[in-house]
Design brief:
256 residues, four-stranded antiparallel sheet, 17 strands, globular
């Protein structure tokens, strides 16, 4: 089991561009601290774009998260709702332009090769052979609107939650929240093809117990101007709850 899946780089007020691409891919997760503030946002974009094509957001290479937030964001992989594997990001670049101090909200990520190594063989078999179905889902930033001619919950898409990418298992799902508040725009309703919602949730909770274990999970208290790079094929990620409703400024670039 690999426990060396994280690296921290202190730039000590040097330019972000002083780092080579090799520095940034030595580890599947890298936190960069204390980069020189001058032109930092432009350098962040330049570094990220140097790794390949990116997902476009209104003619910009990044998405800004700046809405009021408090609710925990549970473990997931980016691109869960994308069926086209070529459109699922391989690398995630996060820039915490403004982040509250001492109010919780730790960023968290869990190393999927370690999760898979600890999963019972029965769950691995299920994840590989039964698709996970997602109900009433329209993206985490928009509300699902059910067609008027349909009753009950609506299955929007389905996919296998475990597959191999570049020789490593990738976990592609959401894990269930302990508590859903009005901040959450989706009710995390999922089930495996031949199982009930209740049976499926029990399995997802078992996966979550492993994902939050010490040998799989890393938590970070982000600070202003921190930059975090994650291999989306090798990590689930999320965020702990803030102690109060806050406003933060977090930029994300997804590299294909």
């Amino acid at each position: 089991m690999n426990t060396n899946f994280f690296k921290e780089i202190d730039l000590k007020n040097k330019s972000l561009l002083s780092l080579s691409k090799d520095n940034l891919i030595e580890s599947p997760s890298v936190l960069i601290k204390n980069a020189r503030n001058k032109n930092l946002f432009a350098e962040f974009i330049s570094i990220a774009k140097s790794f390949g094509d990116y997902l476009d957001y209104d003619n910009k290479p990044y998405k800004l998260f700046d809405e009021d937030s408090q609710q925990e964001i549970e473990y997931h992989s980016d691109g869960v709702s994308c069926i086209d594997l070529k459109r699922i990001p391989k690398l995630l670049f996060f820039f915490a332009k403004s982040w509250p101090i001492n109010l919780g909200g730790n960023f968290k990520f869990s190393y999927t090769p370690n999760i898979v190594s600890l999963l019972p063989s029965s769950i691995i078999h299920l994840m590989k052979n039964q698709k996970l179905q997602f109900f009433n889902y329209a993206g985490t930033h928009s509300k699902f609107i059910k067609p008027k001619n349909l009753d009950g919950d609506v299955m929007v898409f389905e996919k296998h939650a475990l597959s191999k990418v570049d020789g490593e298992y990738k976990i592609d799902l959401f894990l269930p929240l302990d508590k859903i508040t009005s901040d959450i725009k989706w009710d995390y309703l999922m089930k495996f093809e031949d199982l009930s919602f209740e049976e499926s949730n029990k399995i997802l909770v078992e996966i979550k117990k492993i994902a939050i274990s010490e040998c799989c999970q890393k938590e970070l208290p982000l600070k202003n101007n921190d930059i975090l790079i994650l291999n989306n094929n090798l990590f689930l990620h999320g965020r702990k709850a803030f102690s109060q409703k806050i406003k933060r400024e977090l930029y994300r670039i997804q590299i294909l």
